[in-house]
Amino acid sequence: MAEARAHGWWPYLGPYGLFLILVEVQGRVPESLEPWVFVLRVLLPGLWILWFFRHGALRELRGYRPGAAGLAGDVLCGVAIAALWMGPFLFFSSLPRPAPSEGFDAGIFGPGRETLALGVRLFGFAVVTPFVEELFVRSFLIRLVDVVDGDMNFHKVPIARFTWRSFLATVFWFTFTHVTWEWGVAAVAGVIFNLWLYHRRHLGSVIVAHAVANASLWLAVVLGPESIRMFL
Q1: How far apart are CA 35 and CA 21, in angstroms?
Q2: Per residue in 55-99, pLDDT tens?
Q3: Is 27 contained in some domain?
Q4: Which of 129, 109, 104, 124 is nearest to 229 (CA)?
Q5: Does any domain span residue 30?
Q6: Are the CB atoms for 227 and 100 separated by under 8 Å?
Q7: In degrees rounded to 5, what are phi and psi of residue 117?
Q8: Which domain holds residue 98?
Q9: Which residues contact 62 (CB under 8 A, 6 or more apart)?
Q10: Residue 141 lies in a domain
Q11: Total number of domains in the chain
Q12: pTM for the structure as a whole
């Protein structure tokens, strides 16, 4: 506990904040620099997490041994979330959505390098992002909410402890940190991710489910029609 407290909030706030800053920077730099910021957006948060993990922080990532049945459940949860995320937009054309041109630009590295761009996007979307988001939302924030009026030591709160305050706060945060047209599906996904955490009792299960959900969206976009590029 003392070692965890020594690291403070940085293992959780750092990757999440850095990712948000780099997203903002990418939209403001000259076009020639966008590919470099895009790569940094993937690498730096991931390296931040890896560094703290190797130095004894992020103990909630250790001990994930789900077994075949548990892993299958985590994977199926992720596939279900991806289907629920896309489904309403595929069946109800009246729902708000961005234009197809606003989706991920596979030509960010230049002509002939679309596969590289999609590979980097997959790594960031399905490997780095689940760790960044779940460590912040369902390890840090979900526990901090329950001690915010006390000593602020969220480490003393067990992983996957249910309270209505933390449940609602994290669903709210997860929902409204997505873009406006995603709010409905993000709210549903936020509820499912929380419930899956309470059910499986290990953050690793939620990270796997989140990774599978994002990988499924990536696969659907890559193999599907141009009209669903918005999901990537």
Answers
A1: 15
A2: 999 999 999 999 999 999 999 999 999 999 999 999 998 999 887
A3: no
A4: 104
A5: no
A6: yes
A7: -60, -45
A8: 67-231
A9: none
A10: yes
A11: 1
A12: 0.94
